[in-house]
Each structure stands twice: as structure tokens, then as C-alpha cells.
Amino acid sequence: MGSDPQYAKYPDLSLAQDIFTLTNPASTEPSRQASLKKLQDAISEHKMAPLYRFLAHPVDGVLNPSGEGSVAQPAHSGARRPSGISGIVARTTLVSGIELPWDEKLYEKLRTKNEEELETFQHEEDEAAEKAGETEVQAARGKRAEFWARIGDKEKAITSYEAVFEKTGVLGTKIDIVLAIIRLGIFFGDKIMVKKNIDRAKALVESGGDWDRRNRLKAYQGLHLLTIRSYNLAAPLLLDSLSTFTSYELCSYSSLVVYSVLAGSVSLKRVDFKSKVVDAPEIRAILGDGEDKLAALSGAISSGAGTGDEEMQDVSSATPTPAPAAVNLTALGSGSADHAEMEAPVDFTPLAGLVRSLYVGNYQSFFLSLAAVEETFLGQDRYLYEHRGWFVREMRLRGYQQLLQSYRVVGLASMAKDFGVSVDFLDRDLAKFIAADRIPCTIDRVNGIIETNRPDDKNKQYTGVVKQGDALITKLQKYGQAVRLRGSERG
User: Fold this and answer.
1) Is 489 exposed, middle or buried (0-12, 13-18, 19+ CB in 10 A)?
2) Model confidence at 351, in pLDDT bands (50, 70, 90)?
3) End-to-end Cα, the chain, rounded Å
4) Which of the pair, 81 or 471, is modelled with greater confidence?
5) What is the distance, to the nearest Å, from the Cα of residue 214 to the centroid of all Cα atoms in its chain?
6) What is the pLDDT of residues 3-29, one digit of tens each?
7) Chain mean pLDDT for the chain
8) Which tens digit of pLDDT belongs to each residue from 241-265?
């Protein structure tokens, strides 16, 4: 095991979620009020003058979309709006009834406090340079970098972290610095910066990083892949992180459970979905009923494909499972209470219903659970919000595919009844997927049936060869035209 992680306290990513909540029209009034109070308290407590300006400034604050100035601070036509803000806000306006007012006196007071604190760091560094060694100097520089991260100055924090990185020889510390830079990118929604530094951290870890930092990076990478809609790549990383999670600076354990289950549900094949989500002890301990939780926590169950997994279970014979109550996850993570804040109880009922109904084939309950998951999780989380429409569409597709793969012909009205939707809705929804070659079937509206067209492997290979051949012929034709043109120029 390596040394304890450094530079893990700032930035506080929960504040980014609070900022998002203030601009999210789907958030509830109590949650918006709680987020506003938490954000205002944090700005005052941590002297976050740069973040306060970034958000609330009357000219170029991201929460002032029109650039309208106040009496004390008039607008000017040349104001430049901050770029790359889509990842931190749902929209560039606060929800009606919520205000983060600009107070020039408060800003100047915070800025003065910042300058005084910076002078202290500079004095500490100068004194260390005169009376101590390089280790003490680096410690003082590290404090300055954490200071910039704490008050929300992205550019200066990155510059300071890079300066510390260049003078650091310890591999573990270098990895911690890069992880801190990644969190800055996540806080401000800078996905390009996050991707670049994840690749950088992977190279450092591969060169000899310890087990703990390797596992922490796995959670960072999984979360990043989630934000760029690579759920198929994020799922194995997030699911693997459940049993070894210690990255509480990144997200709470409850959030990790939500991300893991959603990514696995939309991307894993049925056998993997059963072994890694439905039967996973870490997930059953949270989403299962009382007996499942007890068995999972005691080690009486383990993940693995069950017998008869390839066969669809009859919906009518499926035994209803009691809905899980809200779960407090403080004791379920692998870290101790020293590493994790006390988490508020989370109601996993919609998520448990989604997993259970998808696996047993109760499609009407599946659609209802999917709607509840969209409202409870997808519409409230800053990492899931951007791709919520895509996720719901892909899960509907998964449900359709799962039912149709078991039949040659299905009645349109019967299938609509199974999903609890109208025939017209199902017709329109299926037509989109059929046109995009996502479902191999045809709809006979006259006879009211759906016929599946499952090509065998030989036909599939033949179709693939034809498509590749067409692409090759097109490239050769373009190449031939280019060669003839060059020949005529030489002539």
C-alpha cells in the first residue's frame, strides 16, 4: 500500500452539484434553497472570491446570461463571457425565485482575505528557502496550489499544481497532483482537460503507481467516460470500483452505486448484466430486499451467472420483490467514516425496480421504473443530466430488443399492452429504431403484427463483406481520380 493521498480535499465537487441544482428547472424548491445556502456559506467560509465572481458578477458571471450591469457595476459592450460552462450549469440562468446577488463589498472583503493568505504562503515559502530544505519549500507551494483550488480559481490552481509537479520526484505525489487537476476539470466541466490528464495519470500509474492510486484512477476514469456518454467503457470500471472505493473526494458511495447500475443496465449483455449488476453482492446489499441485503453483507451470495440465465423468465410467474427502503450508505463503502462524510439516506426504489423489471421481463413495470429513474436520478445529477434523453431512449430500445428476440411474430397490440403504452406510440417508437437498423424487424400495421428478421451468421458476414467492398471501391475510385488529375498536371 502506498502513502496516504495528498491534495485530495479541494476542490469540493459537491459545490459543483449545488451550482448545477440552482440552474436545473427539474430540481425541487427545497433542494434549490438548500444548495443556495450551502453555496453562499462555502463562499463566505472559504473566502471564494474568484468563484463568487465567476458565478455572480453582474457583467460576466455565468449566472448572469444577459450581461446586464448593476448600478454599482454597469455593463459594457466588450464583456467576454466565460467559455466552457455547459458542464457546471444546466442552463445559464437561475431558476425563478432563486438569486445569487452580487455584493461588491463582500467581493472586495473576500479578495482582501485572499491576498492576506497569499502573503502568508509567500512568507512561509521564503522562510523555508532560507532556513529549511526543498521539502519544506514544496510543502509551502503545495499549500498555495490547494489555496487556489479551494477558492475556485481554476487557471491559477493548475499553474501552481504544475509548478509543484515539476519539482516533485515522488511518483505517488505526482499522481495525486494530476488527480487534483482532473477534479478541477470535472468541477468546471472541462472534459478535454479531464481526458488529457486522465491519460497522463494512467501513464504515471503504469510506471509504478501503488494499488490504492490505481483503484482511485479507475473511479476517475469511469466517471469521465460517463460524462462523455461512453457507458459501455464506464460500466466495467465503475462496477469494479464498488468493492475497493476510497475516492470520496470524487463522489459519494451512493452516487457511485447509481452510476454503476445505470451504466451496467444500458451497456452490458444479459449474462454480464446478471453477474455484475443483478447478482453483484455490493449492489444486492443496497438494491435487494431485507434477505438479499443480509446475505450479501454476510458473504452468503456471490456474483456469477445463474442457471437458466439465457432463458427469459415468464412475467406472470415472477414473484414480486418487496420495494427497498431508503438506504444509508455510510457503512457500506470500503472506506471508513474518516474518509466519507455522513451521507443522507437515498431512496433506491426506482433504481431497484428498473434492474429487477428489466431482468425478469416485466416491461410495464420497467417503463414505469425508467420514468421514475429519469425524474429521480437522471434529471437531478450534473453528470447524468446532459445524456438523460439518450439513456431513456437506449433503455427503451433494450426492452424492445429483449422481448422481440424471443419471438418470430408478435402482435402489435399485445406488445403495446406488455409495455403499458398505446399502439400508436409503440408504432412510432419502433419505427425510429427500425429505420436506424437498431432492431431487425418489420411492422405490418394492416395485420397488426411485428415480424422479426434475425439474420444468421453467414448472412451477417456476407452483408458486412458487401459493405466493406463498397467502401473499398469508393476509396479506389477517389484514388484513381486523384492520380489522373496529377498526371494531367504533369502533362
Assistant:
1) exposed
2) very high
3) 71
4) 471
5) 19
6) 678 898 899 999 999 999 998 988 888
7) 83
8) 999 999 999 999 999 999 999 999 9
Euclidean distance between CA atoms 19 and 22, whole angstroms: 5
- Residue 321 in contact with residue 289, Cβ under 8 Å? yes
Contact assessment for residue 273 and residue 265, using Cβ atoms and an 8 Å cutoff: yes
Cell triple for residue 160? 501552481
Residue 218 C-alpha cell reads as: 479507475
For residue 335, the surrounding DSSP H or E stretch is none
355: left (phi over 0), alpha (psi -120 to 50) or beta: alpha
Show contacts of 112-118: CB within 8 Å, 24+ apart: 113/47, 113/49, 114/47, 114/49, 114/151, 117/47, 117/147, 118/144, 118/147
Q: What sign has the CA pseudo-torsion 244, 247, 248, 251?
A: negative
Q: Kindly write down the DSSP assignment for every residue of 415-462, as one continuous string.
A: HHHHHTS-HHHHHHHHHHHHHTTSS-EEEETTTTEEEE----HHHHHH
In this structure, what C-alpha cell is assigned to residue 228?
462523455
Q: Which residues contact 459 (CB under 8 A, 6 or more apart)?
A: none
Q: Distance between CA 14 and CA 22 in Å, rounded?
A: 13
Output the DSSP codes for 224-243: HHHHTT-HHHHHHHHHHHGG
The DSSP output letter for 276 is I
- Residue whose C-alpha cell reads 509543484 in the numeric block: 164
Pairing of strands 409-411, 449-452: antiparallel
- Closest to 352 (Cα-Cα) out of 420, 427, 261: 261
Order of strands across the sheet with 409-411? Answer: 409-411, 449-452, 441-444
Residue 312 is classified by DSSP as: P
pLDDT bucket at 218, cuts 50 / 70 / 90: very high
| Contact call for residues 318 and 362 (beta carbons, < 8 A) | yes
Angle at 27 between CA 9 and CA 99, to 5 degrees: 75
Cell numbers found for residue 351: 433504481
Q: Which three cell numbers stand for residue 483?
A: 492520380
**DSSP state, 306?**
P
In which element (H, E) is residue 260 found? helix 253-267
Q: How many Å apart are CA 171 and CA 218, to the nearest integer? A: 17
State the amino acid at position 114 in one-letter form.
N
Cell digits for 339? 474518509
